[in-house]
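Ticket #4471: complex job returned nothing on first submit. Input attached below:
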Amino acid sequence: MDEAALIQLARGGDLDSFNRLILAYQDMVYNQAMRMINEPSVAEDAAQDAFIIAFRKLDTYRGGSFKAWLLRIVTNLCYDELRRRKRRPTTPLEPVDQDDEEIESPHWISDGAETPEDAAVRSELRRALQGCLDDLPTEFKAIVILVDIQGLDYSEAAEAIGSPLGTVKSRLARARLRLRDCLQLFWELLPPSYRLGQESES
Amino acid sequence: MTTRISPRDWEALSSYLDNQLSSIERNRLELRLEVEPELRGGLKELRRTRLIVREAGRYRAPRNFTLSPSMVGQKRGTSLSSGAYPVLRLASMLATLFFVLITAGSLVAQLTQSPQAIVMSSERENALNAPAVGMGGGGGSGESEAPAFALAPTLEIQTAEMEAGSPTSAADVREVTPLAIELATPTPPAMEAFAAPLESEATDSAAAGEEPAAKAYLVQPGAETKPQAAGRNYFTFIIVIQAALLLLALITGVLAYLVRRNIIS
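Support reply: We reran it on our side without changes. The output follows.
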């Protein structure tokens, strides 16, 4: 059954149809929340809340990209969460081992298929990137995640953030520039392929 | 690091990377890229940054986020169940209620009608007995004091009485017959059916003997009176209604049960 038919059934209260849509989009929604908030349990809550809100507000969906509509809901929830954190800042709990020592590379971002060296580099790079993303203003972070990580085109991204196309273009360019500057600080973490390109330019 | 590229140029480079420029804008930028190394360098930096972000990978949902009815405030059973169950239940209840009411009403009507029928029958019997005795005993004066309406519907009573051995002679029968025909004119079809065999058989029986002639008064099987036919139609109608209501109650009840149990949805 296609997406439009499932949406139509879900609008009539058919929860099974909506659950099929959830299964199709849950990775994307969770990924958005995780990239925005960078805390698994909070991201889980945001994703779950996003789907509950989406089901309840399904009658407000006026066609267009359903993916963008879902991402808009979860992104708005992430904005709320980040605003809440700004008002009441908290120190995130780092995972600890049996001796109460912090684990440097949390197991949830490791990839079992890689060699230990590659995995270590990649996980460091991910941490660096996530750190750079977290330093971005919320609006910039949202747009760079939507376009560069989620793979939305500009019009879908504009739908997802509820802003004009021109805003998407300018925010994305500025976000990329800030990320470029931030990633310079982690230069030594970049794989050789990235560094060679940089060196040949300079 | 490149700093002389304007924000507008950075935006154009970013859009160029994503192939979001119009053909005119793209051509213009490509011409500039050929002659401006700083712009080329900026494009490479942006491309690299984008590559790093894209290779960051995606998190996968740690669990399924599928919703249960309780999470969205739904009672168990959705769509059809939520809409059809109350309707089916109500329909079943109403059908059952009407069935009970009509059955009870029908029974009460039958019970209250039976004593009345007995009383009416006895009255009619009395009305018929008076002229019959007068005609039989007095040699047949030919005058009847019984009202005209009493004769036509109670012909079967009269015939039954005669069958039971009333001392009415064939001659009396011949005398009563025209009177009966005359008095029974309000119900011509019934009397036509009754009178035709009555006259001929009465004559024959007069010739043949005495008592067998009384059989002529038996009402023919197909010849029933209007009140009888109406009564029978009424009871047939009631039975049909009862059957329909019972069927409706059963069907809607079973459907309501199935919907409630989510066997159908």
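The CA atoms of residues 97 and 186 of chain A lie 26 Å apart. Closing as resolved unless it happens again.
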